[in-house]
Amino acid sequence: MGNITSLADILRVHGVGRADYTALVQDDRRLTWAQLHERAGKVAQGLAADGVGAQDRVAFLDKNGIEHFEVFFGAALLNAVCVDVNWRLAAPEVEYIVNDAQAKVLVAGPDFVPILDAIAANLTTVTRILVIGGHEGYESYEDWVAPFPADDPGASSASGDVAFQLYSSGTTGRPKGVMLSNDNFFSLLPLAKDIWELTPDAVNLIAMPLFHIGGGGWAVAGMYEGCTSVIFRELDPAALIRTIEQERVTHAFLVPAVLQFMLMVPGVADADYSSLRVFVYGASPISEDVLAKCVEMFAPCKFWQAYGLTETTGAVVNLPPEDHDPSGPNRHRLRSCGLPGPGVELRIVGDDDIECEVGEVGEIWIRSPQVMIGYWNQPEETTKSVTPDGWFKSGDAGYLDADGYLYIHDRVKDMIVSGGENVYPAEVENVLMGHPAIADVAVIGVPHEKWGETAKAIVVKAPDAEVTEAEIIAYAKERLATFKCPTSVDWADVLPRNPSGKVLKKDLREPYWEGHDRRVG
């Protein structure tokens, strides 16, 4: 498939070569590759009529669905860029991203009309808002797309052009648009066949949110091969098990929390998993107990762990199936995230940018053709994250063992990973400091049985102020995505700080993580 070098090529090649094969399945809806090519052609014509051209951004706000792929590929046929917005975000966060991306068109699902109502008047570049399924206050996506011819505009896309723009939470409190090029993607996609055994006859489960690299990137890896993608809109573990059985799913990418929930479903052991070939999991560590039960439950399905970031176009380190034997001599490797993939270099870097010895903990640096072009409109943030010779500073702390396996130890940045979602304390603290009863606040990650870890706010009250835990959590929920909000609040007279005024988060975290061998969820 050497002739696929852009996202649009995926559709152009399979729309002809696999025209009658099923490309997408969502509940009882099915689209062949030819039908998807036609639908994307209509969307592309509509976007072009609205002034969308090469490298312009189109924003998409909805849960997983067929329409995502129509808009995603419709934009690609124009060499434009679809920006999937995290639908868990609160209205002010969505508004910031749509404006920051300078999107010309915003397509939203019916569930998100309340967000549209809150932000429509403040959108600075959007000239058209469309609602899937229609709504009395907004133009219907279907009505808009209907009159346009199903013609591929045929725009070409250069290797360095942006193919994907995904927003990561901001260490500084502002989300950053991660620009991933065709080169970034197509240095990984041909390897998906070799690593994860994705083939044209695969049935690939798309259950993770498409605004994540683990959702959108994983979907594209399967579509590159021309396989069938089964789209899951709402993550319901019991329905997931039924779908694997009914659709004969062969491949899936899931986060450990979902695997854990699947094991708890009544009757899980009675389902038919004989179609399963490969399960990839990642985004947060997995407990040995859950993994051992999964390996047994879904046998002989192969398990791969993937470690990567949005900024590295997803997986750069992989733990292969042969290292997933809980009773074998290498069971210690289950705590590792594996070995660098083809073309990936790793370094562990300590203070003063000195490379660490084997087994010594430092920041994980990654160099690979998969490392992003940079952050959209934030050159200073790009310079902080990527060295002049191409090393990306991950913000994760870890070490390499003598065999070259990478172990994640902690995070250099104070990031919290809750159920696979990144939460940056700075962003939460900025919001909470707006509360008149809060004089000072620190947000830390504490262990959580279901989500791995969740945010806790440690609050110093303003003099004479009265405020409750429930009031602080409610205040956060009005302004931030729920997954970022503290689930608990503790009180302090003063926060511990170093001489330069930085809060000593490590000291604050310590009591909550006592007895845990790893300081990440």
Q: Could you please describe the fold and organization of this structure?
A:
This protein has 521 residues and is an alpha/beta fold. Among the domains are: 1-157, ANL, N-terminal domain (Rossmann fold, 3-Layer(aba) Sandwich), CATH 3.40.50; 329-411, Luciferase, domain 3; 418-513, ANL, C-terminal domain (GMP Synthetase, Chain A, domain 3), CATH 3.30.300.30. The protein has 16 helices and 26 strands. A 9-stranded mixed β-sheet has the order 2-1-11-10-12-13-14-15-16. The protein has a 5-stranded parallel β-sheet with strand order 4-3-5-6-7. It has a 4-stranded antiparallel β-sheet with strand order 17-18-20-21, with no helix packed on it. It starts with 6 loop residues before the first helix and ends in an 8-residue tail after the last helix. The relative contact order is 0.09.
